[in-house]
Design goal:
With about 110 residues, this protein is mainly α. The protein contains 3 helices and no strands. α1 (about 20-50) packs antiparallel against α2.
Length: about 110
Amino acid sequence: MLTVERGGPRPNLIRPRRVRTLAGRAFDLLAVASVLVLVGLGALNLYAVAGWSRAGHQLEVGAAGLGLLLVMQDMRVERLTVIGWARDALAVVLTIVVLLDGLEAQ
C-alpha cells in the first residue's frame, strides 16, 4: 500500500515569542531581589571575617552574575541548552588542564 505525504503549506518554522505576563515579571523581580539580598548578606559576612577585599570580590562576582542573567533572560531555551553544553565542556577541559599542569605550578 502506498502512503501519501500530507500536502499544503509548510508549517511556520519560526515560533513567535511568548508574551511575558505580569505574574512572570513579578516572579523574576522577586528572584532578583532574593539574589541581591543573599549576595549582600554574604558580602557582609565576608567583611566581618576577612575584610573588604573578599567582600568586594563577592560583590563583583554577584554583579557579573546579575549582568549575565539580564543578558540571557530573553534568549530562547534552545540557545541556552547549547550554551550549557559549551560551558560544561569548557569546565571539563579546564579541570583536565589543572590536573595535568597544576602539580607543576607548585
